[in-house]
Amino acid sequence: MPAQNSRNSDSDGSNSGYQGGNTVLTYVVGGIIAWGLIGWGLDYLLNTRWLFIVGAVLGAGGGYYLARKHNLTRGAKRRHGDGQGNNI
Description:
The protein is an all-alpha fold and 88 residues long. 65% of the residues lie in helices and 0% in strands. It contains 3 helices and no strands.
């Protein structure tokens, strides 16, 4: 029976930075869309024009904040090591 040394790119961590970056981007873009729509709705109800921009900026900040809370950004990874006992 041959030994199986099949390791996918997720288990050795070589693809985790790419996936983390995609997740951060998804959080930020999702925040912009969601809070931009909320701002757009409030603009429509209150007859203003500036709440859409405020909502989009708050959404971007909120998405980045959530990504930091989920330890998906590089700064958090440096603080806690690489997950294999190595502090980088």
